[in-house]
Amino acid sequence: MKILIAEDDKDLRKLLYEQLTGEGYQVTAAADGLEAYERFKSEAPDMALLDVMMPYLDGFSLLTKIRETSEMPVIFLTAKGDESDKVSGLRLGADDYLVKPWSLNELLARIEVQKRHIRQNTSTDVITAGNLRMDFTNGIIENNGKPVSLSAKEYHILKFLSENAGRVVTKKQIYQAVWQDEYMYDDNTIMVQISHLRSKIDDEQHKHINTLVGIGYRFH
Fold it and tell me: Pairing between strand 140-143 and 132-135?
């Protein structure tokens, strides 16, 4: 399991890194919110430990961006212990909220709880198609074993198409499923998103999205 740490305190970041690697976890660490977001996109961690107050991108904003494409467990480790801060973090999609100072044993216990949740969910929502492995439970898309960074719209289009693999879906159906709105005959919006998605998931051996002119698209 790979854990992303986002913590601007250098000493605490080093301590967390050493403690978690000592427990057998893979760890990737970032000193600010923007660096953490880039590591999230490029390294596809299984869980994140986030500080709230960080330079460039605070923990709440970082969580909001993570939740656009991923439901991986996120635990806040923060000095902001006010009830309003905890409520804000949980409402944004955090799975746990641990106030400093915390003990290593308590942190490891909280991580174990989230690992159990992952094990309960990962067996039901993984789809493979050729070079693609799509784990929609944890928001992980891999192309030939390498993580793929998708925008929120690209992610949800891929999810909708893969769930309807082999069937033709119309632009109207895609628009209503992804934008959750009435179809406004904006074919160009969907065509642009599909083009961007193809550039990230297709290769010479695998062409996953077929266009049926005047009808829609089919995923295979």
Answer: antiparallel
**SS3 label, residue 181:** coil
How many of the other CB atoms lie within 10 Å of CB of 157?
26
Mean pLDDT, 10 residues at a time, the chain of 220 residues: 93 94 92 95 91 93 91 87 78 88 88 77 68 85 90 91 86 84 70 92 86 88
Q: 3-state DSSP call for residue 158?
A: helix
Instruction: Classify residue 22 as exposed, middle or buried by CB count within 10 Å of its CB (0-12, 13-18, 19+).
Output: exposed
Which helix (H) or strand (E) element contains residue 169?
A: strand 168-169
Could you give the CA distance from residue 49 to residue 6 in angstroms, rounded to a whole number? 6
Phi, psi (degrees; rounded to nearest 5) at 107: -60, -45
Q: Which two structure tokens, joined as six digits, stand for 100?
A: 């400093």
Spatial distance between the Cα atoms of 138 and 72, rounded to a whole number of angstroms: 5
